[in-house]
Amino acid sequence: MEANNRPLVPSGTHKLVQDKYTVPTNEIMKLYKKVVEWIEDRAPGGIIYGFQRRGKTDAIKYVRDKLKEQYNNELPIVFVPAKHKFTANEEVFYELLLLWSGHQFPYAGKKNHKFDRLAKFLHEKGEGSRFKQVVLFIDEAQALLEAHYKWLIDLYNYLYEHKIKLIVILVGQPQLKGNKDLYVADGALHIVGRFMTREHQLFGVKSVSDMSVCLKGYDTVEYPEGSGWSFTRYYYPEAYAAGERLEKCASTLFEAFATVRQENGLGGKMEIGMQDLTNTIKHALVNYGSESKEKKYWIDLDTWIKCVKRSGYIDSEVSFLVKKG
């Protein structure tokens, strides 16, 4: 039997269970193409924004890894994650950039020394690349203060003077777009012109086609890597062997989300956040797949509806609608 050939993965360690994976979606691929365009145009910067649970952080990590692959690790990329509180402290800001740039001594020295060390370190990275560019991603950038932009301008100018192009890509919630609009209204073109010349909004799943692309990822991404066992095959080996694929469930899963919305009186156009979708799919694989007590041969509409309800979709959707409206 197909199940007897499954790779041995200790309980609780599968990438799906630990959320240590990203499947390419329509939105992620649109974003990737957009960021590549900005890099090729040598644009000084851009903003990427979307509501919570739309998968911004995972999308940026995917884009970062794809950029490293496309440019053969010859394009220096710095990614500042969303686990730091941005305060109006110049020295702390330089420490943060030094840390995530990979500098060996991010905390040594005084403020001016840290700026010099950061600028020279990034110059060295850029100079060592045939592209003469450094790409800096900053997550949750809606929290940046005007002072942070001043310090980024100092860094930008230093590298520009040394013929290295710093591309700053800011990632955040819709407030980031609002901040840009305020800077434009206030005439702060020194900020907008350097770091916000381009923009891209990241959406969730809005169509069956979007859903299909996402589900296909589970049919193709393998764990262990190179084993031939995709996520779908691992959790539903018999059904997979018989030709079933999650990609074929796109219409049914989309219907499941629509049904749950209707049951809870939610109107308007449907846009499913990536966190809610991936939680739903994980529940369907882990809680009804071959390792579960409620094992099913395959996933029907009623099961999808149960998984949507368990994903936390309704709570997050209500929160989204409140923020949006």
UniProtKB/TrEMBL annotation:
<dbReference type="InterPro" id="IPR049945">
    <property type="entry name" value="AAA_22"/>
</dbReference>
<protein>
    <recommendedName>
        <fullName>ORC1/DEAH AAA+ ATPase domain-containing protein</fullName>
    </recommendedName>
</protein>
<dbReference type="Pfam" id="PF13401">
    <property type="entry name" value="AAA_22"/>
</dbReference>
<feature type="domain" description="ORC1/DEAH AAA+ ATPase">
    <location>
        <begin position="44"/>
        <end position="176"/>
    </location>
</feature>
<dbReference type="GO" id="GO:0016887">
    <property type="term" value="F:ATP hydrolysis activity"/>
</dbReference>
<dbReference type="InterPro" id="IPR027417">
    <property type="entry name" value="P-loop_NTPase"/>
</dbReference>
